[in-house]
Amino acid sequence: MYGRKLKELRKLEGWTQTEVAKKIGVSKQTYSHYENENRQPSLKTIRSLANVYGVDLDQVFGDEIGEGQSVYDIKSFVKLPIVGQVSCGKKELAFEDIEGYEEIPTSWLGDGEYFFLRAKGDSMIGARITHDDLLLIKKQKEIEDGEIAVVMIDEEAVLKRVYISNNTIILQSENVHYPPVVITEGNVQIVGKLKKTISTY
Q1: Which one is catalytic: 5, 42, 138, 160?
Q2: Which of 138, 150, 174, 184 could form a disulfide with 126 if both were Cys (CB 3.0 to 4.6 A apart)?
Q3: Do both 116 and 36 map to the same domain?
Q4: Residue 66 and residue 117 in one domain
Q5: 160 an active-site residue?
Q6: Which tens digit of pLDDT belongs to each residue from 96-133?
Q7: At what angle do helices 43-53 and 57-65 cross, to 10 degrees?
Q8: Best-predicted range by mean pLDDT among 49-58, 140-149, 182-191?
Q9: CA distance 43 to 67
Q10: For residues 140 and 113, what is the distance between their CA atoms, to the nearest angstrom?
Q11: 75-89 burial, b if ≥16 CB within 10 A, otherwise e?
């Protein structure tokens, strides 16, 4: 719903996507993703958009916050760590190199534990995940076949589309230049499932 509202507001002002993108400090492509709802803007960008269009946040993003909630109600937000590195010792997940925190609406979250990772490289561009995007991850050890998840291979955490067949795990990139990784043995652990991708350009 917010994508359609953004488009209507932009047309009322007579602006192009390029003009709006410049006003809020993002690329034209990124703003286009917002209108098409391919990417969820960060809270900072949401506030910038509301300011540029001269409207209340609820008028554009109220549906995203949830019925009966206000975007101005501080209780409806939570700060989650942006983790630079994930490690796993004694079968317990540990966060290392926390670079900061991102404030998001609690309506984005369900039960369980969540955190952010910073996307690295271009192996998942086919899923509209680009370098430096923020990835909202729900910590869980099991996922459905074909879902995108963070997987720990020995001491390295990677984001891939995961397929599981018997005792074989296939990690599939969303870029034709990266072949699938087939794992039949070794120290492999599913860290969590990708819930949202947030552009921070």
Answers
A1: 160
A2: 174
A3: no
A4: no
A5: yes
A6: 678 888 877 777 788 888 999 888 888 888 988 888 88
A7: 150
A8: 140-149
A9: 18
A10: 8
A11: ebbeebebbeebeee
Number of domains, the chain: 2
The residue out of 57, 72, 87 marking a domain boundary is 72
Both structure tokens of 144: 């459905």
- The answer to whether the pTM exceeds 0.85 is no
- How sure is the predictor about 51, in pLDDT bands with cuts at 50, 70 and 90? confident
Cβ within 8 Å of residue 58, ≥6 positions away: 65, 70, 71
Tokens of 27: 């690329």
Contact 184, 164 (CB under 8 A): no
Q: Are residues 25 and 95 in the same domain?
A: no
- Both 119 and 192 in one domain: the answer is yes
CA proximity to 81, closest of 59, 97, 70, 68: 97
Which residue, 54, 72, 90, sits at the end of a domain?
A: 72
